Amino acid sequence: MKVYITRNALVEGIRVIDASPSTISDGGFETNISFCRKNECHLTIEEAIKRAEEMRDRKIASLEKQIKKLQEMKFVVMA
Fold first, then answer.
1. Which of 63, 69, 22 is nearest to 41 (CA)?
2. Which of 7, 18, 51, 64 measures 20 to 30 Å from 39, CA to CA?
3. For 49-64, what is each residue's pLDDT tens digit?
4. CA distance 48 to 70
5. Under a CB-based contact definition with an 8 Å cutoff, are residues 52 and 6 in contact?
Protein backbone atom coordinates (compact mmCIF):
# COMPACT_ATOMS: atom_id res chain seq x y z
CA MET A 1 0.00 0.00 0.00
CA LYS A 2 1.36 3.42 -0.97
CA VAL A 3 1.48 5.87 1.93
CA TYR A 4 2.37 9.57 1.83
CA ILE A 5 4.40 10.77 4.82
CA THR A 6 4.18 14.41 5.93
CA ARG A 7 6.14 14.12 9.21
CA ASN A 8 8.99 16.34 7.96
CA ALA A 9 7.23 17.86 4.95
CA LEU A 10 8.48 21.38 5.65
CA VAL A 11 12.09 20.19 5.50
CA GLU A 12 12.12 17.14 3.23
CA GLY A 13 8.88 17.41 1.29
CA ILE A 14 6.25 14.67 1.15
CA ARG A 15 7.73 11.17 1.09
CA VAL A 16 6.09 8.17 -0.57
CA ILE A 17 6.66 4.69 0.88
CA ASP A 18 5.13 1.23 0.84
CA ALA A 19 3.57 0.36 4.19
CA SER A 20 1.00 -1.83 5.85
CA PRO A 21 -1.70 -0.75 8.30
CA SER A 22 -0.43 -1.06 11.85
CA THR A 23 -1.95 -3.32 14.43
CA ILE A 24 -1.53 -0.47 16.91
CA SER A 25 -4.89 1.08 17.73
CA ASP A 26 -4.09 4.69 16.81
CA GLY A 27 -4.58 4.01 13.10
CA GLY A 28 -0.96 4.61 12.10
CA PHE A 29 1.16 2.75 9.58
CA GLU A 30 4.18 0.54 10.02
CA THR A 31 7.05 0.15 7.58
CA ASN A 32 10.22 -1.86 7.70
CA ILE A 33 12.11 1.26 8.81
CA SER A 34 9.71 3.14 11.07
CA PHE A 35 6.23 3.78 12.39
CA CYS A 36 4.22 6.90 11.66
CA ARG A 37 1.18 8.29 13.41
CA LYS A 38 -2.23 8.76 11.84
CA ASN A 39 -1.84 12.51 11.20
CA GLU A 40 1.59 11.98 9.58
CA CYS A 41 0.55 9.29 7.06
CA HIS A 42 -2.00 9.71 4.30
CA LEU A 43 -3.50 7.34 1.76
CA THR A 44 -3.93 9.96 -0.98
CA ILE A 45 -1.65 12.67 -2.29
CA GLU A 46 -4.49 15.18 -1.86
CA GLU A 47 -4.70 14.47 1.89
CA ALA A 48 -0.91 14.75 2.18
CA ILE A 49 -0.80 18.08 0.35
CA LYS A 50 -3.65 19.44 2.49
CA ARG A 51 -1.78 18.44 5.68
CA ALA A 52 1.51 19.92 4.42
CA GLU A 53 -0.26 23.19 3.60
CA GLU A 54 -1.78 23.26 7.12
CA MET A 55 1.70 22.69 8.58
CA ARG A 56 3.10 25.50 6.42
CA ASP A 57 0.34 27.90 7.45
CA ARG A 58 0.92 27.17 11.16
CA LYS A 59 4.67 27.68 10.73
CA ILE A 60 4.13 31.01 8.92
CA ALA A 61 1.76 32.19 11.69
CA SER A 62 4.34 31.24 14.30
CA LEU A 63 7.10 33.10 12.47
CA GLU A 64 4.88 36.18 12.03
CA LYS A 65 4.22 36.17 15.77
CA GLN A 66 7.96 35.99 16.45
CA ILE A 67 8.64 38.84 13.99
CA LYS A 68 5.97 41.02 15.62
CA LYS A 69 7.49 40.37 19.04
CA LEU A 70 10.95 41.35 17.77
CA GLN A 71 9.61 44.49 16.09
CA GLU A 72 7.93 45.60 19.31
CA MET A 73 11.04 44.95 21.38
CA LYS A 74 12.47 48.04 23.07
CA PHE A 75 16.11 48.29 24.01
CA VAL A 76 17.37 49.96 27.14
CA VAL A 77 20.91 50.93 27.94
CA MET A 78 21.97 49.59 31.29
CA ALA A 79 24.76 51.45 33.04
1. 22
2. 64
3. 999 999 999 999 999 9
4. 33
5. yes
pLDDT tens-place string over residues 14-68:
999 887 765 444 555 665 556 677 788 888 999 999 999 999 999 999 999 999 9
Cross-strand partners of 41: 5
At residue 38, the 3 state secondary structure works out as helix
**Helix (H) or strand (E) segment spanning residue 16:** strand 15-18
**Whether 19 contacts 41, CB under 8 Å:** yes
Beta bridge partners of 20: 30
**DSSP conformation class of 68:** H
In 9-44, which positions are buried (b, 16+ CB within 10 angstroms) versus exposed (e)? beeeebeebebeebeeeeebbbeeeeebeeebbbee
